[in-house]
Amino acid sequence: MWLAPERRSARRWAVPVLVLGAGLVVGGVLLADGRRGTALVALAVLAGYAAHLAYRRDEQGLAISEAFGRGHRGRTHLKAAAMTGDVLSAGLVAALVVQALRGADVAPYAWLALLAGVTYLLSALTGGRAP
């Protein structure tokens, strides 16, 4: 257990809580508009993204193999891969929300978000967490 005050700060939870709050607002707006299915999909995607952000808030990733290299080079490549995944996930979630609020079909984005979530979940379970 880490006792440093910066690890217990409420600021570390601000973004996941903000994303979950945005999910509730978007879901409420869509529900008020009578689009219950789309509201549930948007809420589920934003809740999943909030859970992803909460899980990642103090994750220290390590490469499973030496494909990324060692030392500083390995950490740089691993951070670049993680940042690429984060940016693509954020873009996918934003596209789903925009399409849902426009009243367009969200099914392709929902399937891609599900694929991204399952892929991340499987990699986190098989890779384990760093000490």
Helix content: over 70%
Number of distinct beta strands: 0
Helix and strand composition category:
mainly alpha
- Please report the distance between the alpha carbons of the first and last residues: 11 Å
Global geometry:
elongated
Radius of gyration: 17 Å
Strand content: under 5%
Count of DSSP helices?
4
What is the chain-wise order of helices and strands? HHHH
Low-confidence stretches: none
Main sheet attributes: strand count, strand direction, barrel closure = none
Tell me what the structure shows:
The protein has 131 residues and is mainly α. It has helices at 14-32, 36-56, 71-102, 107-127. The protein starts with 13 loop residues before the first helix and ends with a helix.
Summary tags:
71% helix; 131 residues; single chain; 0% strand
